[in-house]
Write a structure and sequence with these properties.
With 164 residues, this protein is of the alpha+beta class. The protein has two domains: 1-59; 64-159, no CATH class. The protein is 45% helix and 21% strand. A four-stranded antiparallel sheet has the order 1-2-3-4, with helices on one face. A hairpin with a 4-residue loop joins strand 2 (124-130) and strand 3 (135-144). The protein is elongated, with a radius of gyration of 34 Å.
């Protein structure tokens, strides 16, 4: 009787050991598969990040901040960020009552105001304007003088038409 109990315990223990071995092998296989999938995802994300960084560098090509030759024109001025200073001066033109004086159109829904500004170099700015419903773009020439005043002159413009 004692031998049968030991035999049953041995068989039962063997079955538990077999079950644990099989389940752990499946778990290891599942973890390896997940690791492989995660490595592939990481590689794809790194490639996507590199592509995005390259696009960002391309977008920054036409900007005063990254143009050393254009920035050299402002070395004698004590400006920490000339592009920000010029953009702020252009935004100040929005403070006039009514439409912005640089926008050659009258606002249809509200007053036309300048929204976004990109200082391209030491002479040119591209800007976006809108009245809330209609919008357009401006190409502006500017001159930053030694007394830190800025003269703006409109070079070209366009107003987008809505097609219904």
């Amino acid at each position: 009787m004692k031998t049968r109990i030991f035999l049953y315990l041995f068989i039962f223990s063997s079955l538990i050991a077999l079950y644990l071995y099989v389940s752990s092998a499946k778990r290891v296989e599942a973890i390896d598969k997940t690791n492989t999938e995660l490595k592939i995802t990481i590689e794809q994300l790194e490639d996507s990040l590199r592509t995005t960084q390259i696009k960002a560098l391309d977008l920054q090509y036409f900007s005063l901040e990254n143009n050393d030759d254009a920035l050299a024109y402002y070395d004698h001025l004590s400006l920490e960020d000339p592009a920000r200073y010029i953009a702020d001066k252009l935004i100040e033109t929005n403070e006039t009552k009514g439409d912005n004086p640089l926008v050659p159109y009258e606002g249809m829904e509200n007053d036309f105001k300048i929204n976004k500004i990109k200082v391209l170099n030491h002479k040119w700015i591209i800007a976006d304007f809108s009245d809330g419903k209609y919008w357009g773009e401006l190409f502006i020439q500017y001159e930053l003088k030694d007394n830190l005043s800025v003269d703006f002159s409109l070079a070209d413009y366009l107003l987008y038409t809505r097609s219904n």
